[in-house]
């Protein structure tokens, strides 16, 4: 007979941590050191899991929203980004793993990943680390968004975007992926307890990261029946200097630097913790303590991965892809 799988330790009360901070723009070494510091800080505060923003190491290529992409400074910024991207595995992943082991914490960290030993190809990647420091999984963004397609290749890691912990599944999606119905259903089948939604520091002028993150993840928390960590980056001064090349772009980035958007959301779309409105406008980790039992109560009513769905009656929509 097969050996039975050891039962999970159903830890009921969890402490979640959402990073609201800026990377050191296009500086892999310094940003990695900041990641290590934030992980250790969250560990000292007894957090169980910490989520980081999109491409936190070493910064989101936000110039794709503001500059012509075929000429300098955009092309030079891409060259710098490639030089400061992360190879997986590599020294940065080893250092992050060691920090997670020291802090006794799970972490989901956004990086610009490059194909090792080459002179080309980047991905928008989430790295999943265990409490013991092991790199458990990586998820590459399924489809880069708009101008990101000049920077990042389509993901090659398939549909899986989660890790298993002693308290259940932890999933993660990147920016607009959090609004993808197929991605939501795929993640929902694994019954995540916690979902990390990672976001950049800004969008195109006129778009609000905070509004988008709350719109998508309030719905996502309700469709998945889970807790959501919204990790939202802060615009770094280095980014303003690098691609705030005219008065309009610089003014936009300076205004975005003042905004804060990290939140933690519970089932039914309830905001449990909010990093906005801080008087000092500083950087911080946003925390919330949550109870797993709330998820069972929620699924008593709505379980879209189980009793409250009929996937067989929708299957015909996918025949052409099979």
Automatic annotation (TrEMBL):
Family matches, as InterPro entries: C-N_Hydrolase (IPR003010), C-N_Hydrolase_sf (IPR036526), Nitrilases_CHs (IPR044149)
PROSITE patterns: CN_HYDROLASE
SUPFAM superfamilies the record matches: Carbon-nitrogen hydrolase
An MF annotation (GO) of this entry: acyltransferase activity
Keyword terms: Acyltransferase, Transferase
Superkingdom, natural source: Eukaryota
Pfam families named among the record's database cross-references: CN_hydrolase (PF00795)
Family under the similarity heading: Belongs to the carbon-nitrogen hydrolase superfamily. Nitrilase family.
Protein name stated in the entry: Nitrilase/cyanide hydratase and apolipo protein N-acyltransferase
Organism: Hyaloscypha bicolor E
């Amino acid at each position: 007979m097969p050996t039975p799988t050891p039962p999970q330790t159903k830890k009921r009360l969890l402490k979640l941590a959402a990073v609201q901070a800026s990377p050191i723009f296009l500086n892999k070494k310094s940003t990695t050191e900041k990641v290590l510091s934030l992980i250790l800080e969250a560990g000292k505060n007894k957090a169980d899991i910490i989520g980081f923003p999109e491409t936190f190491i070493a910064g989101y290529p936000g110039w794709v929203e503001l500059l012509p992409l075929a000429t300098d400074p955009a092309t030079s910024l891409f060259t710098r980004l490639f030089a400061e991207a992360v190879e997986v595995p590599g020294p940065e992943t080893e250092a992050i793993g060691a920090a997670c082991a020291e802090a006794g914490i799970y972490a989901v960290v956004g990086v610009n990943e490059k194909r090792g030993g080459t002179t080309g190809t980047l991905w928008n990647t989430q790295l999943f680390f265990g409490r013991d420091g092991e790199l458990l999984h990586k998820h590459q963004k399924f489809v880069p968004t708009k101008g990101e397609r000049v920077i990042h290749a389509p993901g090659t890691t398939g549909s899986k975007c989660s890790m298993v912990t002693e308290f259940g599944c932890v999933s993660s999606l990147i920016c607009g992926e959090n609004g993808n119905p197929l991605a939501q259903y795929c993640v929902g089948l694994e019954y995540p307890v916690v979902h990390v939604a990672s976001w950049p520091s800004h969008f195109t002028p006129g778009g609000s990261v905070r509004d988008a993150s709350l719109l998508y993840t309030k719905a996502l928390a309700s469709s998945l029946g889970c807790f959501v960590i919204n990790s939202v980056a802060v615009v770094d001064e280095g980014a303003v200097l690098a691609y705030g090349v005219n008065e309009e772009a610089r003014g936009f980035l300076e205004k975005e630097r003042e905004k804060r958007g990290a939140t933690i959301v519970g089932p039914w779309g309830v905001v449990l913790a909010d990093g906005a409105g801080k008087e000092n406008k500083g950087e911080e980790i946003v925390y919330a303590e949550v109870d797993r039992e709330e998820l069972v109560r929620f699924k008593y009513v709505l379980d879209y991965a189980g009793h409250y769905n009929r996937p067989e009656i929708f299957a015909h929509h996918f025949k052409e892809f099979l």
